[in-house]
Amino acid sequence: MKWYEVISTIDRRIIYVLLTVLVILPFFTRVTIPQNIMPQTQRLFDFIESVPPNDKAVIMTFDYSPQTMPECHPMAKALLKHCFARNIPVIGVSFDPQGPGLAVDAITSVVDRINHYATSKEDSLVYGKDYVYLGWKSGRIAAMLDMGESIAGVFPRDYFGTSVDSFPLMQRIRNYKEVAIAIVLSAAAYPDDWIRYPQTRYGVNIGAGLTAVMAPKYYPFLQTGQIAGMMSGMKGAAEYEKLVLEHGYARELGTAETGMNSQSMIHILIIVFILLGNIGYFFSRRQK
Amino acid sequence: MSTDPWIWIGAFLTLMIFSFLFKDNPFYKFGEHLFVGVANGYYIALYWHNSLKPNLFDPLSAGNYLYIIPLLLGLMYFTRFIPKISWLVRIPIGFMIGWGAGLAIPAHFQAEILRQLEGTVITPESFTNITAGIWSVIIMVGVVCTLVYFFFSREHKGILKPTSRLGIIFIMIGFGASFGYTVMARVSLLIGRIQFLLGPWLGLIR
Q1: Most A CBs within 10 Å, among B103, B173, B184, to test the A interface
Q2: ipTM of this predicted complex?
Q3: How big is the A-B interface in CB pairs under 8 Å?
Q4: Alpha-carbon distance B176 to B170, whole Å?
Q5: Using CB atoms within 10 A of its CB, is residue A246 exposed (0-12), middle (13-18) or buried (19+)?
Q6: Where are the domains of chain B?
Q7: Is A196 within 8 Å of B182 when comparing Cβ atoms?
Q8: pLDDT digits (tens, 9 = 90+) for B144-201
Q9: Which residues in chain A touch residue B187, judged by CB atoms under 8 angstroms apart?
């Protein structure tokens, strides 16, 4: 077998082993590959920075599933830390049936951590006053539109079965007029519906935290301003974590930032394999 | 190393699915079938408790008989399985298409055609910043050339030939960006699983 045939027919299992080694290795080394902040992530961060404390709420939609957790879960946690640190109330909802469990996990872990370090009752986060999670709703387009009239009308009870009207936060935040931005954390085309319906009819600002597969589709919406800012995949999450840390809103980085070292190593490996495959193909075609 | 049995179950199921990378095997098959079963059970329970029961059966049992209409419309979908009355399925489908089209067409037109056209048009404001101005021109050229590439009513000769060639370059750049992002997404999923195995399960990393 000629050398160019060898590099064109590398056993896939060798590639898998190399991939696994390069994913694991950065967790045990002190190598840090610096991440630059992309403009769309900075725009989302700046938007949240511009929201006055204790005023309008941020709606966060948890529309991702367990398989896309590595990308969307760190985004959710970083956003929650940012909002809570700035005293911006958060209303969580889900239109993806797999979202509720992950939403509760993200919210609980961030709230528990903040309350653990709280020095007084005023510093602690209180459910119903600082944040609520309203759960999952079917028929998302009708629900999104109806939330423009009354959020409590669409979600009369929260995820835990408590009447939404009993929460001080929901007595203040009745519809989109009292919402600064809706940030869609999604692994499917949910931001499309937010742009088409609530934004077109009610002028709601939309932010997005998307899996990397989806990100290219939404760049045109960023350019037109229909999306105020966006986090794209694990890199976007890592950038937001970094921004939140640098501004003193968090005590430590999340899982996305540490995962990005592995990500960069894998990118180098894939580039090498693409080059090898093309060189092999080029030489084998010349021989024919 | 974790003492939580759920973490151990998660770890073993992850390894079972990963074993397919070597070759198909009974452990992978078990993991796959378990996932399908659990997912089905989850969806049935979720839809019953969060959708069907509160939105249909609770109002019906409370004496609100207007809800019989959506119940009947829903049941008509099942007439597909009875050939003699299968034509009834056209009623709920027609209702859904009518409702969906009425809702979607104006919204699509506004959000995805008019606003995107606005974003493509070059105005004097586009050149307030030189970099933004250059990008506006590139976007304009890209949109026009790509549209020309998909214009099949006339043979691509003369001015249409180089324009459509430039269009295909823009399309290829778009595909390349999508592919790059897809690779990043798939690798992220692997990283997530490795973080789970090394962290919560084995306790080797934070």
Answers
A1: B184
A2: 0.87
A3: 121
A4: 10
A5: exposed
A6: 121-206
A7: no
A8: 999 999 988 888 888 999 999 999 999 999 999 999 999 999 999 999 999 999 999 9
A9: 19, 23, 262-263, 266-267
